[in-house]
Every structure is written in C-alpha cells, then in structure tokens.
Design a protein that fits this description.
Order of helices and strands: HHHHHHHHEEEEEHEEEH
Strand order of the largest sheet: 1-2-3-4-5-8
Number of helices: 10
Distance between the termini: 46 Å
Radius of gyration: 25 Å
Oligomer: single chain
Structural class: alpha+beta
C-alpha cells in the first residue's frame, strides 16, 4: 500500500504531534533520526503485540503505521497524557453528582443514555474533523423508537417486515421516523416510507434531534394526508417526506415535543 501525499499531509496536520505520537516517537527513533524497528517491536511487545514475523514483508513506514494504530488502542491514555505540558490524561468524566462506583465498573456504565449520546456526537464530530469519517451516522433511529415506546407504552415490533415499528394497547400501528440535524446537514427529510398506499401503519411518529441528540420537535401524524405531501422515488421504491414546520399544521397533527423531551430526560 502506497501512502499518498494528501494522506501524509493530513496525518502530519492532525496526528503527528498528538499526545500519543509525542509519547511513542522518542522510544522508536534511532540516534540518526530514522525509525528503529527493533525498538518499535519492543514497545509493541510490552503491550502484548507481536507482529514481527507477520509484518516482515512490509516497509518500515507501513510497519510503523500498523503497529502505531494497534498501540493507540492498547496503551492506556494516561500513559501518554501524563507529564506532557498542556496534555492532561484523557479521561471520561463521571456524570454530574455521581459517586465513585464499587469495584472496576467503567465510567461509561454510570452515564445516562443522554450523556452517552452526547459523547457519541462529540466523538463523531472530532472524527469528521480529522477526516477519518465522512458522515455522522448515528443510533438516532433506535433512540427515537425507544423514546416513543417509553413515552406512550407502545410495543416495538421485532421485525421490520410488518410495515410498522410499534403498536399501542388498542392495536393502532405506528411508523417511527427521526432525523438528526447537524451543522453539516440540516435536511429534515426522513428515511423512506415503504408501501405507503397500502397503509401498513395508522400514524407516523417523528422526532427531530439537534446535533447532540437533544429533542427539538416531535409529532404524531395520521396516515391520511401523508401521501399528498410525499415524493415518490421510483429508484428506491419508496416515499420521501420532509418534516417541515408546516407539518404541525396538518389535519390531525399532534405535537408531542414536551412528552418526548421528558422521556429523554428520564431515561
């Protein structure tokens, strides 16, 4: 694999002088400034990584890249954060008001769902800034289903083949959709509604989140009137619906923003 000039420039701009590399570089650099492969393998060995034979056919730069990526996952952050000017150890703070957990329970286990989603949003934003990822894909769909089912006591379907996502105690069927609005993409277009004319659901339940998964607006809309506001995509064989503010003026629309926000705060 040849490393392109653009990729190397991006690495030098974003990663070359981060805390991990500032920690690793002195340990694997020979007196003449070149990479000391024996020293690199020795560092890797201290963390249970032995790839000397497996990587024997690679050039030094490729060995450094592969072992560096493995070490970045294996080395505790406090080892390369401590002692560097301006670089405190990387830690995940406990939720506000939390006390020290018993035993070895990890900090993430103490976090609320909302705190975990906020952390996810911040991690995805940083990965995007570093050009590691190009999108901000997220668990937004599952989160929306959790919020609606928790709020209204709906039973979630185990299979998408049913054509709806949840039913209430009276057997009323709901299709649940959501959209996360970020500074990179503020589109309110929901994912495809399948087989819309066949009326596989009775109501559309939808929620808009901001970039940190905070509830912006939520609504329940009757099936009647949806098709007239949708655009059919022959290529995808589905209907597209944009959850604009005017949707709240549709006949039968029910604003459930406050209820969904309350559920997000509680879980």
């Amino acid at each position: 694999m040849e490393i392109s000039r653009e990729r190397r420039e991006r690495w030098e701009r974003l990663t070359k002088n981060d805390p991990f590399n500032l920690w690793l570089r002195p340990q694997v650099t020979a007196v003449d400034g070149t990479l000391d492969l024996d020293a690199l393998h020795a560092v890797a060995g201290r963390y249970g990584i032995d790839r000397r034979e497996q990587y024997a056919h690679l050039n030094p730069g490729q060995v450094r890249m592969n072992l560096g990526n493995m070490l970045r996952k294996a080395v505790p952050p406090e080892e390369y954060g401590a002692g560097l000017p301006g670089q405190p150890p990387l830690v995940i703070a406990a939720p506000s008001g939390a006390t020290e957990p018993p035993g070895d329970e990890p900090p993430l286990a103490r976090a609320s769902i909302r705190e975990l989603l906020t952390l996810h949003a911040e991690v995805m934003e940083e990965l995007r800034r570093r050009e590691v990822v190009r999108t901000s894909n997220s668990p937004v769909g599952d989160y929306a289903e959790l919020l609606f089912s928790t709020t209204f006591g709906w039973a979630l379907e185990s299979s998408s083949a049913a054509g709806h996502d949840a039913t209430d105690r009276d057997g009323v069927r709901y299709q649940i959709k959501s959209r996360r609005l970020t500074r990179h993409n503020g589109s309110r277009q929901l994912s495809f509604l399948r087989r819309l004319p066949e009326k596989k659901f009775d109501y559309l339940a939808a929620v808009l989140f901001d970039g940190r998964y905070r509830v912006q607006r939520a609504i329940i809309l009757p099936h009647e009137g949806l098709e007239a506001r949708c655009r059919y995509s022959e290529h995808a064989n589905g209907w597209l619906f944009r959850l604009e503010d005017s949707s709240w003026d549709m006949t039968g629309a029910r604003d459930v923003t406050e209820e969904i926000r309350a559920a997000a705060e509680a879980i």
